[in-house]
Amino acid sequence: MKIVMLGSLGNINKLVIPELLKMNHQVTVVTSNPDRVKNIKALGATAAVGTISDINFLTKTFAGNDIAYLMVPSTSSNGTDLNAEMKKQGTIFYSALLNSGVQNVIQLSSIGAESGPDAGSLYAYHYLETELNRLTNINLAFIRPVGFYNNLYNHLDSIKNEHQIYSNVPDSIEQKYVAHEDIAEVAIKLILKTPAKKTIHYVASDSFSLKEFITKLSVAANLPDLQFIQICDDQLKQGLLANHVPDPIVDALLKTSQFQKSDSDIYKDLTPENTTYGQVKLIDFIKQYAVALVGIDNSHHSSTIADK
């Protein structure tokens, strides 16, 4: 099959692309960075250099492919209105797909796309999905992962320097997390056989609270004094602003965190039929995290809209 993939050689694509090439599929990888072309070609894939905001470029690149895998990098936000940005991007995808005639589409979306405006930054994906749902007579699969394990790396510095984790979400609240490897497994299956019509696919790896995370990490990393510090919403807001996160992004992230600690169930739509639970469990991620704590490189980091 001919497959076009957005997302360059990001955390998920770098796992998916080699597997597709092993199966002798023709893979075109879209990247906005010309420096990535050499690495893409080295894998055996074709590189297409351009931006996801360019309808003509996307239309030309999508044309002739059997499947398009879509995603929007967190770095694409300009920090103004997340919902409007996602709606605009969805309109661009819609036009490019309609004009190119691709019949099978996989979109990397997010948990929270169905949860209403109270979900804050996560709800922006609702606007992206709404635009793509305007497409008719195609097979369209939405992958909705829960929170990424890697987002816990935003605590890396405070753990290293202070042996503390700060959060406005209580450490007793259980949340679901997912590994890039487990998302990649689902993406590969959907690419190889995209279900008919329009479908939604949740992906998670494990469920745990920050209290459990701290307990296990303190043993694995030999940090017996590692502790949780509860902060208020305003402290989170001021911390983000101090790190030069734009006001609209701060407000959206704050709303998301408030939703996570409210009585609302962000996971209410997950069922055994529409959810895949992967193989990477908390104990596996703890081992990676312990290594990151003694590492000197920057390969372990969170990738949220606040990390641009």
Structure description:
With 308 residues, this protein is an alpha/beta fold. The protein has 11 helices and 13 strands. The chain has an 8-stranded parallel beta sheet with strand order 3-2-1-4-5-6-10-13. The chain has a 3-stranded mixed beta sheet with strand order 7-9-11. Strands 8-12 form a two-stranded parallel sheet. The two termini are 35 Å apart. The mean pLDDT is 93.
Q: Helix/strand/pairing class, anyone?
A: alpha/beta
Q: How many β-strand runs?
A: 13
Q: What is the terminal-to-terminal distance?
A: 35 Å
Shape: globular
Mean pLDDT: 93
Q: How is the largest sheet built, in terms of strand order?
A: 3-2-1-4-5-6-10-13
Order of helices and strands: EHEHEHEHEHEEHEEHEEHEHHEH
The largest sheet is: 8 strands, parallel
- Determine Rg (CA atoms, Å): 20 Å
Strand content: 15-25%
Helix content: 25-40%
Please give the count of helices.
Answer: 11
Low-confidence stretches: none
Secondary structure blueprint with pairings:
Elements: E1 2-5, H1 13-22, E2 26-31, H2 37-43, E3 46-49, H3 55-62, E4 67-70, H4 82-100, E5 104-108, H5 124-132, E6 139-145, E7 147-148, H6 156-162, E8 164-167, E9 174-178, H7 180-192, E10 198-204, E11 206-209, H8 210-220, E12 227-230, H9 233-242, H10 247-260, E13 275-277, H11 282-294
Parallel strand pairs: 1-2, 1-4, 2-3, 4-5, 5-6, 6-10, 7-9, 8-12, 10-13
Antiparallel strand pairs: 9-11
Helix pairs in contact: 1-7, 3-4, 4-5, 8-11, 9-10
